[in-house]
Amino acid sequence: MNCSGARENRNILTMRIFTSILNNGQNNKRGFSVLELLISVALLGLVMSLLYGAFFQISNSSLQVNATLETRQELRLLMKMVLDDLQSIKYLKHFADSSQSTIQQRETGLIAERKLGPENPDTGELEEVTSIYFHTVIKTRFYPDEKERDPELHEVGYSLEENQDTKTWEFVRREDFYLDGNIREGGKSYILSEAVTKFDLELLESETALAGGGFKEEWTTEWNSDEKNCIGTGEPFCLPRAIKLSMTLSGKDKQSVADSQVINLCVPPCNPEIFK
Question: Which of 47, 193, 254, 265 would you label with 122, given CA atoms 20 to 30 Å apart?
Answer without folding.
Answer: 193
